[in-house]
Design a protein that fits this description.
Two copies of one chain form a homodimer. With 204 residues, the first copy, chain A, is mostly helical. The first copy, chain A, has helices at 5-30, 37-44, 48-55, 58-83, 89-106, 108-116, 125-141, 149-171, 180-203. In chain A, helix 1 (5-30) packs across helix 4, helix 1 (5-30) crosses helix 6 and helix 8 (149-171) packs antiparallel against helix 9. The longest helix of chain A has 26 residues, at 5-30. Chain A is elongated. The first copy, chain A, starts with a helix and ends with a helix.
Chain lengths: 204, 204
Amino acid sequence: MTAPKTAREPYRAALRTKALKIAESTVEEAGLKGLQARVIAANAGCSVGSLYNVFGDIDGLVVAVNERTLELLEEPLKRAFEANTTKPTAARLTALALAYMHFAFDNQNRWRAVFEHQPQSEVPAHYRERQARLLSLIEKTVSGEIATPEMRIRAARALFASVHGIIALALDNRISTFNAANVEGEIRFIVAAAARGLAEAQST
Amino acid sequence: MTAPKTAREPYRAALRTKALKIAESTVEEAGLKGLQARVIAANAGCSVGSLYNVFGDIDGLVVAVNERTLELLEEPLKRAFEANTTKPTAARLTALALAYMHFAFDNQNRWRAVFEHQPQSEVPAHYRERQARLLSLIEKTVSGEIATPEMRIRAARALFASVHGIIALALDNRISTFNAANVEGEIRFIVAAAARGLAEAQST
């Protein structure tokens, strides 16, 4: 006999919390490749069917883990944003970029999972909104130099992808052996040069 | 009875050429995940043992394919470099960046293979040299603005990783739905801003 929907809700919520916590630890320790529905279900003390009932499918579980990672990432980014509001744009952008770098270094597996995951279906709107909120920190930071919203979005995406690219290639030892000081130097170089470029574009 | 080494050399060279060509087409069509020693050997009409005898192991075959990709990439980059030697730094950097972007768009599977491959052992020196030669095109381009060789290397790596990051995130639809015009816009933005920043750093 199946319990009525309302009675099942607390169970679903508790299972969601428990399974998500286990999935987060798994990604933290073993990366995305370690995330197997069967193992997560066994550790959460439920069937794979119940797990999928809560998360939809394995994709839904990965998106939930990655959304938690974006939530964790938001904290240091917001701190960097708020601690530097009175500083020049270059210093503000650099603070955001280095906060992102430290998060990536300290949470490599979680961070990689966000970018490795190839979702089979459209990610939920609240995931996209969370992403957009992170990018908006950069948009706000360049708003003094860039007048139009669409150019601000372009600048924010370009700056984010640049800093991300430097970190990603460095962690994979793609163009040189990993060296944290070099990564920081490259990030400082591109962000400072771009910020000077923004200021100059403004003044001409 | 095994033929003496000298007699085997022409056979080895011919097998290398043939197998490499097959492996290149395979990566082009199916990406790195399509590259299986058994299938390449069958198509080249040799045993897996003979294939490994020529390339060392599957890693060696992938590196050989990726080195060919870097060789192909060098052509448009050199053309972009040589066609713009008299132009301002921003225009020269933009020409290199857009040539790289077009190569990535037109050769997605080959291009991804270069960055997806996780070599189990150190890549050969000639592979690293070829990579360094490509980066040196950027180093030469910023040499008017940046005096010291190590800062030029830093700038070249940062600029390359930035442009690469923009392309990679865009092709994976990471922060927005893929749109070639937006990718070009973001690349032009970051390269132009950075180039203006270089020029200004020089003049102050």
